[in-house]
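Chain A, query sequence.
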Amino acid sequence: MLSPTNVIRLSKEEVIEYLRSTKDICLQNHPKALQIKTQVADLTKAVEQLDDALIYDRKSDFTKVLEELDEQRDNAITGMRYGFLMNTYHNDITKKIAGQALLDHMDTYGNRIARLNYEAESTVLLNIIEDYETQPKLVEALTTVEMADWATILKNTNKAFRTKYQERITIESAAEKLSFTAIKPQALVVYEKLYKRIEALTELDENNTYTTLNNELKTLAKRYQQIINTRFANNQEGEQENNTMLN
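Chain A, predicted structure.
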């Protein structure tokens, strides 16, 4: 089985399909006889809830709008990074120094801001925008590299995103409908209980009762581990490429 830590690294669709396949394999191996009936029943319910939540998320008008606004703010912060980087190669020493100062400042928040989850990115961008408005050296640097308008765009797009995000939370709360993001942590807790239960029973197994179940779950886990490894390798390659451009 995949460790709960690795399941977290899967996408929404992958999480559901992995948990569904895990549940199906357990059901096919007679969970009552294996003393995992309760845990499998809980996982079955969790998968149904995740399915419903994902369908709701996809149908929600907010989802598309949030994705568009998130892309706009991602483009803004990414464009600013490259703008600062470009200025570090400027012949004008004043622009060069200003560009480097702005790039160094942005790097204090990490070089993958656009890849953060919704909530984390909102917080980081709020802090960056506040810095641009309250730190005289950054205000001057933005003016020097002629990118104050980009800071305005970043502020407006992040504000629009946060407003729409809050609207969705308000409506979901009123409708008592939880989003996929809200349900996922509890689903992973349910999965972890099954994971630990099978692990404990297998440790005590002297008659190879759990061999078939474990072999099937191991084969399933290998497929998803490959997905995780490939994604990690691609992200590392992208980060190295980004660092090369910055150096």
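Residues 80 and 147 are 8 Å apart (CA to CA). The radius of gyration is 24 Å.
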